[in-house]
Amino acid sequence: MSNDIVRYPTPLTAPLSRAVRAGGFLFLSGQTPKDENLQPLRGDIKTQTQNVLDAISESLKGCGSNLSEVGRFCAAAVRPLRYKP
After folding, report:
1. Per-residue confidence of the chain (85 residues) as pLDDT tens digits?
2. GO molecular function terms here (predicted)?
3. How far apart are CA 28 and CA 57, in angstroms?
C-alpha cells in the first residue's frame, strides 16, 4: 500500500479535487445534480438522483474504479419533505 496522495482535478472552477486517492482508498468530492453546462439540474428527485449517480460513476471510471468497488456511500436531501413517495 502506497502512502502517496493522488489528486484528480475537477472541471469546475472550485478549488477542490474531483477525487483523492490515499492509503489505498479513493475519496470522491460531493456531487450535486448538474446539466451538460455544469449548471444546477432542475427536476424531480428521480432525475436528480440518476444524474448524481451517473456523475459518480463517471468520476470513478476516470480514477480507474467503478460502482462495484464502493464501500460506503452517503447521501443527503435538501428539503426532503418536498419529496413524497
Report:
1. 567 899 998 877 878 888 999 988 999 988 889 998 889 998 888 999 999 999 999 999 999 999 999 988 887 777 666 656 5
2. hydrolase activity
3. 11
**What are the structural domains of the chain?**
5-82 (3.30.1330.40)
Beta-carbon neighbour count of residue 33 at 10 Å?
Answer: 19
Handedness of CA 66, 69, 74, 79 (dihedral sign): positive
SS3 of 18-41: the string is EEEEECCEEEECCCCCECCCCCEC
